[in-house]
Specification:
- The chain has seven helices and ten strands.
- It has 242 residues and is of the alpha+beta class.
- The chain has a six-stranded mixed barrel. Strands 8-9-7-10 form a four-stranded antiparallel beta sheet.
- A hairpin with a 6-residue loop joins strand 8 and strand 9.
- Helix 3 runs antiparallel to helix 7.
């Protein structure tokens, strides 16, 4: 009996060790495995310091540190407690295994105030535009002119981006079933934001991702989705549809 118990304990230890080892490989091509971590965020003393990638750390960018994941990898982080998600780019190293250290901006975006359990999933390069849309909006523009800018360029009026808030129309489906299939083709963080609207006098269903975001955040997402949704277009957010 005692030998049987010891055997089970030993088997459990070996299985756990093998599972842990496999989970730490972080194959860049694996975009399906969920890796549980403890989500934390940087202390303010790291602001302005150089990261392992050579970039300067900013609490206002959507970045993170990890002990093993390849630098430059995009990662979808999900707060296990509330389901909120954010895309970050790994640009630094964290010495603690099992910890995913987020910038303060990224941590706040998914409701982390101290440390909370999160799942991380590696993403492919096709998510770059979605990450850029988050990151560009979070990063203030430079306040000093660039030295290499020519006089002619300085004299030109800056291109004005469209003002107001925008949603993203992705197309019209002939039936509800087709609409549901289209929604499933979206990155999962946007699926819950889709509002299907019946086309008046037809069986068609228009699909709009309700974002209510400035142009600079919605336009990169539109670009990234055009291959899958060639009709994708920006729509001004209606006052009663925030």
């Amino acid at each position: 009996m005692k030998n049987n118990i010891l055997y089970r304990i030993l088997l459990a230890i070996i299985t756990l060790a093998a599972t842990t080892a496999a989970a730490q490989n972080f194959d860049p091509s694996d975009t399906t495995t969920l890796y549980p971590h403890k989500g934390t965020f940087y202390a303010d003393r790291f602001e302005g310091r150089k990261t392992a990638s050579g970039e300067i750390f900013s609490q206002q960018r959507f970045t993170a540190a990890h002990w093993k994941i390849k630098l430059g990898t995009l990662v979808l982080v999900t707060n296990q407690n509330n389901g909120q998600q954010v895309i970050v780019k790994v640009n630094d190293r964290c010495p603690k295994r099992g910890v995913f250290d987020l910038s303060r901006r990224a941590a706040r975006a998914i409701g982390i105030r101290g440390s909370q359990p999160v799942n991380v999933r590696l993403l492919g390069p096709e998510w770059e535009a979605a990450w850029q849309a988050q990151d560009t909006a979070a990063t203030p523009p430079p306040t000093t002119p660039q030295n290499h800018t020519s006089t002619t360029a300085q004299n030109k009026s800056p291109k004005q981006e469209p003002q107001g808030l925008f949603d993203l129309y992705i197309g019209t489906a002939p039936t509800r079933a087709d609409a549901e299939q289209m929604i499933r083709q979206l990155p999962e963080i946007y699926q819950s934001k889709v509002e299907p609207t019946a086309e008046y006098g037809t069986d068609g269903v228009s699909l709009i991702i309700r974002l209510g975001q400035p142009y600079r955040r919605v336009a990169p997402l539109q670009t990234s989705l055009l291959k899958t949704f060639p009709e994708a277009a920006l729509r001004k957010t209606e006052p009663n549809k925030p």
